[in-house]
TrEMBL record:
Family to which the UniProt record says this protein belongs: Belongs to the LOG family.
Organism: Acidipila rosea
Designated name of the protein: Cytokinin riboside 5'-monophosphate phosphoribohydrolase
Keyword Protein transport attached: no
SUPFAM superfamilies the UniProt entry points to: MCP/YpsA-like
Primary enzyme class: hydrolase
Domain of life: Bacteria
């Protein structure tokens, strides 16, 4: 697998459980392996459990960079990943999302629950508001997000979501396609236009 010319980081949102279908865990492990093989780094929520832990472990096993960001209150629940060289503890969930966005060049959501949807949709809202222009992808493992995608189309039809903003959600059938889409978008941008920490995201952290 070819690597990107300059390493970029993929922020992964996903469940803190493994789900009921083994395909979800398989996809998380596959995504982690592909991130590392592509010469990319991982930014994620810092946990050691569920799909979150699986992605991080796979990236670490591939020798790539992993940055975790987790609220301090969760440290005492012993779910923070102890094997990370970079693990940031923050005070609020909002600060967690903003710091992950600060480090990331693209966002990928695997299957997950309320937390995953909250993170992904806030990032989409920031893209809609032109706070960032970083790719936002759903990995639709086993059709997990089919219902959500139908809802978004319904929101367009109902007049609550503009078609241009609906197109901010890119869909990959599997981790291979997700990494390929992210890499293509990253490589297509001139160096000076590639995502980087910026003042707008820095303000959100404060």
């Amino acid at each position: 697998m070819s690597t990107v010319p300059n390493p970029c980081r993929i922020c992964v949102f996903c469940g803190s459980s493994s789900g009921s279908d083994p395909a979800y865990l398989d996809a998380a492990l596959d995504l982690g392996r592909r991130i590392a093989a592509a010469g990319m780094g991982l930014v994620y929520g810092g946990a050691s459990i569920g799909l979150m832990g699986a992605v991080a472990d796979a990236v670490l096993a591939g020798g790539a960079e992993v940055i975790g960001v987790i609220p301090s209150v969760l440290k005492d629940r012993e779910i923070a990943h102890s094997g990370l060289a970079q693990l940031h503890f923050v005070e609020t969930m909002h600060e967690r999302k903003a710091l992950m966005a600060h480090y990331a060049d693209a966002f990928v959501a695997l299957p997950g629950g309320f937390g995953t949807l909250d993170e992904f949709f806030e990032i989409l809202t920031w893209a809609q508001l032109k706070i960032h222009a970083k790719p936002c992808l759903l990995v639709n493992t086993q059709g997990y997000y089919d219902g959500l995608l139908r809802f978004l189309d319904h929101a367009v039809e109902a007049g609550f979501l503009k078609q241009d903003n609906r197109l901010l959600v890119q869909v990959a059938a599997d981790p291979r396609q997700a990494i390929e889409i992210a890499r293509q978008l990253f490589e297509q941008r001139p160096q000076e236009q590639r995502p980087a920490p910026d003042a707008a995201l820095n303000q959100l952290v404060r």
